[in-house]
Amino acid sequence: MDLMEKYDTDGYAIFRNVLDAELIAEADQHVRWLQERYPGRSGEDLSTELVARDPFWVRLVSDDRLLDIAEKFIGPDIALFASHYIAKPARTGKAVLWHQDGAFWPLDPMNVVTLWLAVDRSTPENGCLRVIPGTHREELHAVREHEGDDAVFNVESDVTVDESKAVDMVLQPGDVEVHHPGIMHGSNANTSPYRRCGLTIRYIPTSTRITAEPQPFPSALLLRGEPGVNTYQPKPRYVPGEHFPFADAPAWT
């Protein structure tokens, strides 16, 4: 079964060794820089409103190797809807409860693909992503509030999940897991001595409308092809001393 067939059948696929070690090392340093710059945020809360103002973040999600994967699923006209680092700290990293992404997103139609880029090695011990294969063919379920502070997000799908069917996404830095907006997925807490960091990247075809107001959506960026139905944030200029320094920064001035 090739990767596209696997995605159609199971709702996910894994692409190995997509990004080089040098760029992943920059992503690792970027996360640490963000945590120093925004000390009020946990490593699991680096997301939407930060993306479009950050030249390295935009450079990373614009990488042709990632866009080429996205194009296989959504076609040549590609925009960023959202992106989120989830850097679970060692020993105290919180769980992500079972959910379907499509139940939460302001998109019409729900034509979107998530690329989950491994910045760290991701294993069952440090709380790797887990999916329930085939659940992308189910309807989008209602969600419910979760009480307590033991999870990254305080909502979950309002259904009983058969965890015996869960598959662990064991990834090496630079690997990319791709999943469907309807697949049931989550992750356990990180009780290991090692951080587990991944970057979620939500790509949409530019024919999918972001329906949230106001416009443009804070992390909406045109990355490839025709602009379609949305308005977008301007791409940021790199300012030395203000932004995270990276190898390609001169091209962003």
Characterization of the model:
The chain is an alpha+beta fold and 253 residues long. It is 19% helix and 25% strand. The protein contains five helices and 14 strands. The chain has helices spanning 3-10, 21-37, 48-51, 55-61, 64-74; strands spanning 12-15, 78-88, 96-99, 107-108, 113-118, 129-132, 143-145, 155-157, 167-168, 176-179, 184-187, 196-205, 209-210, 221-224. It has a six-stranded antiparallel beta sheet with strand order 1-10-5-12-2-14. Strands 3-11-6-9 form a four-stranded antiparallel beta sheet, with no helix packed on it.
Which key phrases capture this entry?
253 residues; alpha+beta; six-stranded antiparallel beta sheet; four-stranded antiparallel beta sheet; 14 strands; globular
From the alpha carbons, calculate the radius of gyration and give it in angstroms: 17 Å
Spell the H/E element sequence: HEHHHHEEEEEEEEEEEEE
Point out poorly predicted stretches: none
Number of helices: 5
% residues in beta strands: 15-25%
Shape: globular
Number of strands: 14
Mean pLDDT: 93
Q: Note the main sheet.
A: 6 strands, antiparallel
**C-alpha termini separation:** 44 Å
Strand sequence of the main sheet, in spatial order?
A: 1-10-5-12-2-14
Helix content: 10-25%
Class by SSE composition: alpha+beta
Summarize the entry for a quick read.
With 253 residues, the protein is α+β, with helices and mostly antiparallel strands. The chain has five helices and 14 strands.
Write the layout of secondary structure elements.
Layout: H1 3-10, E1 12-15, H2 21-37, H3 48-51, H4 55-61, H5 64-74, E2 78-88, E3 96-99, E4 107-108, E5 113-118, E6 129-132, E7 143-145, E8 155-157, E9 167-168, E10 176-179, E11 184-187, E12 196-205, E13 209-210, E14 221-224
Antiparallel strand pairs: 1-10, 2-12, 2-14, 3-11, 4-13, 5-10, 5-12, 6-9, 6-11, 7-8
